[in-house]
Amino acid sequence: MTTTAPASRPLLAAGCITLGMASVALVDQFIAILKTESSVWQFLFIRGMIMLALLFLYAWLRGLSCRPQNAWAVLFRSTTMSLGLVVYFGALGFVSVATAAAGLFTSPIFVLLISALFLGQKVGIWRISAVALGFLGVTFALTPGSEQFLSNPVAAWQSFSTSTDEGAGWVRYVPALGGLFYGTAVVATRQWCAKESTMALLYGYFGTLAVMGGVVTGVLTVFPDMLALDPYLAGGWRAPSVTFWSWTLVQAVGSALGIVFLTIGYQQGEASYVAVFEYTALIFSALFTWMIFSEVPTAGVLIGLVLITLGGVVIALRSKGGQAG
Questions:
Q1: What's 217's DSSP letter?
Q2: CA 220 – CA 237 distance, rounded (Å)
Q3: Cα(138)–Cα(125) distance, rounded to whole angstroms?
Q4: Where are the alpha helices (DSSP H) in the chain?
Q5: Which CA distances in Å does 101 have to 54, 178, 216, 316?
Q6: What's the CA gap between 239 and 223, in Å, rounded?
Q7: Among 13, 33, 47, 304, which one is least packed by beta carbons within 10 Å?
Q8: Could you tell me which residues come within 8 angstroms of residue 313 by beta carbon, excluding any fewer than 6 positions away?
Q9: CA dist 288 to 72, 251, 293, 301, Å?
């Protein structure tokens, strides 16, 4: 007996992906409120527990199993993906959602590099050019004052190379590390977790993120002077306030809603086509930052977002059907 693949619904898929990205981009804006209420680790712990509870309720109502087939593969995938989100949420304490998202959305670039360097995938001129374009976008998005490179590149380079302010140096590019971890998780998903159920992958991810947050919060509570960093990055447990509970719940529910839309979108459309619409998150991030906080992204950030999006779209389209170009 033969089975027929479900009919593709590209418009529905695109709409769901766009709604999912809008939901995530919106609730991530509220980290600006939460960073004054707790450390990123405590936030990730509480948020993870809330999302695990929501996931358990959904699995119980639908009678779904969350048991993985390959626990070690799921653990590796969950760990690398969680590290990517730790970098992302950590960066949100100091940069806008649009800038942090620019770092996270370098993941397709790292997926391509990992696939070419370690898995032997053939990569042609189109995708090599897309990688270069993406890295140029990262440089623009994460370098303060990068828009000056367009008007006076010599003076801009001299200012960049001699700058001694606190934001100078490699630290400003840490958000891109989130893209590396997330891209590694994507490769692990394709290579080792293709037969795992969605519920097993979600449980592994949310559970690992919650454990990471809980363990680090506990250590920093017992040894409060271990790291001389901002309290958002190195703070221990604080009694949760009503504000913390309210906005963490909003963040968790909004993120869960975004995941639901993303799941539906990937079920309704071809993956390489659908992936293109994930880049609407960069647009929504900049838009919501402006609407909520009246913060207008600099020209350099906007240029970087456009370049990263173009690079990612080229990679997604050229990856369709295993093209080597």
A1: H
A2: 8
A3: 20
A4: 10-27, 31-34, 40-62, 71-91, 97-104, 107-118, 125-142, 148-151, 153-162, 175-192, 198-222, 231-234, 242-268, 271-276, 280-293, 299-318
A5: 25, 9, 24, 18
A6: 17
A7: 33
A8: 276, 279
A9: 38, 15, 8, 15
Residues lower than pLDDT 70 in the chain: 1-8, 151-171, 267, 270-273, 319-325
Q: Quick one: pLDDT at residue 47?
A: 94
**pLDDT for 2:** 45
Cα torsion for 120, 123, 128, 130, to the nearest 10°?
-110
Calpha distance 53→15 (Å, rounded) = 27
**Which CA distances in Å does 106 have to 87, 151, 249?**
13, 26, 28
What's the predicted TM-score (pTM) here? 0.83
Please identify which residue in the block is written with the tokens 């456009």: 306
Q: What is the DSSP letter of 170?
A: G
Biggest alpha carbon distance in the chain? Answer: 69
Q: Render 258-287 in DSSP notation, one character per residue.
A: HHHHHHHHHHHS-HHHHHHGGGHHHHHHHH
- Output the pLDDT for position 131: 83
Q: Rounded CA gap, 210 and 254, in Å?
A: 17
* Cα 273 from chain centroid (whole Å): 19
What is the DSSP-derived secondary structure letter of residue 3? Answer: -
Q: Which two tokens stand for residue 287?
A: 């838009």
Hey, what are 230's tokens?
Answer: 């901002």
- In terms of Cα–Cα distance, which of 191, 183, 132, 129 is closest to 325? 129
pLDDT score recorded for residue 1: 43
The SS3 call for residue 83 is: helix
